[in-house]
Amino acid sequence: MRRRAALPRFRRVAAGLVALALLPAAAHEHAQDPSLRASQPEPPEIASPVPVPLDEATLAALPRESVSARVHEATLRCEGVPLIALLRASGAIPEGRLGSPHLARYVLADARDGYRVLFSLAELDPGTGNRAAYVVDRCDGKALGDDTGPLRLLVPDDVRAARGVRQLEAITVVVAP
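Structure for Molybdopterin-binding protein, as requested:
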């Protein structure tokens, strides 16, 4: 009697093992069939690189802020525009909170002498990294001279002033490869 009860149980276990053995092949076949894949929206097309205008009219149209920053053992008290506001006003980045695919973009700032610094767009976005950076044209009550200006990029919360750019000449927003 025990043998007869064991036989149906053996058949159920054997059938289960055969089904398990066939499962990877069925999953592979399912993954290869494009009609069975979940639809994924195509990411929006994003222009790259996008030059950001630094002309006087563009900067004058934006709200100005006062900012202090330590640069080479001195504290500068400057006036200018937040970099994130300039990027949005120029159309280089969209208004509002940044999401994918904009989080895979970066900002290059170039000086007249070839010095170049980089920021991830995510670190500049107030909703993500909230790193403040400013394009300034006045420090300590005076317009910047030729040795540091006419524009300068300041990053007041960086531990070192290494990403500050004097003689700022160009800002470009780029999609990471």
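The beta strands are 50-52, 65-71, 74-82, 105-111, 116-120, 134-139, 142-143, 152-154, 165-166, 168-175.
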